[in-house]
C-alpha cells in the first residue's frame, strides 16, 4: 500500500521565491531533507498508508462536495518549529485564513467518515522548506530588516490535490487527483 496526503500545491512563481529562501538557509544550515521545488505544498491532511479502494472513495467524496471558487492566502515570513536556533522544520508561515480553515475542517470531516483519525494537534499551516536533523545555525536568529526571509507573498488557492508519496524519489510527491474550487462533479 502507498502513503498519501491531501494538500495545496504551491504555484511556480511562489516556488521560485521559496527556493531563494532555501538558498539562504543552505548557507548557514544543513538538513537531512530539503523539499524539492516541485514538492512545495500546504498539507491539509496526512492519510498515511491507504488501499487504492479507500483512496478512490475519499477522492469521490471530495469531488462531491462544494469548495470555494478561490481565495487568497498570505505566505511568509519564514519560521521554524522547535528550537529557533536550530529548528527541526524550517518553513514559510501560512495565514490561518477562514477559507483555509474551513477547507481543512471539511477534508477532516470526510476523512472521519472513512475512518481516518482527526489530527489532535492544532493546525499550523505552513510550507516546509527543510526538515530533519539540522546542523548549523538558523539565519532567522540574526535576520535584519529588508531580508527576503521576512517577505510575505499572496497565493491564490483554487484547487487542492491528493498526493501519493514516493520516498527516495525526486520529486517525492505524485498528484493522483485534483479537486477544483467552485465545482461539484
UniProtKB/TrEMBL annotation:
Keyword Hydrolase: yes
Enzyme class: hydrolase
Active site residues of this protein: 41 (proton donor), 126 (proton acceptor)
Pfam families: LigT_PEase (PF02834)
Chain positions of motif HXTX 1: 41-44
Origin superkingdom: Bacteria
Matching Gene3D superfamilies: Cyclic phosphodiesterase
EC numbers, comma separated: 3.1.4.58
GO molecular function terms attached to this record: 2',3'-cyclic-nucleotide 3'-phosphodiesterase activity; RNA 2',3'-cyclic 3'-phosphodiesterase activity
Keyword Disulfide bond attached: no
Listed SUPFAM superfamilies: LigT-like (SSF55144)
Motif window: HXTX 2: 126-129
InterPro entries: Cyclic_Pdiesterase (IPR009097), Phosphoesterase_HXTX (IPR014051), RNA_CPDase (IPR004175)
Keywords attached to this entry: Hydrolase
Record domain Phosphoesterase HXTX: where: 9-90
Catalytic activity: a 3'-end 2',3'-cyclophospho-ribonucleotide-RNA + H2O = a 3'-end 2'-phospho-ribonucleotide-RNA + H(+)
Functional summary from the UniProt entry: Hydrolyzes RNA 2',3'-cyclic phosphodiester to an RNA 2'-phosphomonoester.
Similarity comment text for this entry: Belongs to the 2H phosphoesterase superfamily. ThpR family.
Protein name from the UniProt record: RNA 2',3'-cyclic phosphodiesterase
Organism: Halobacillus litoralis
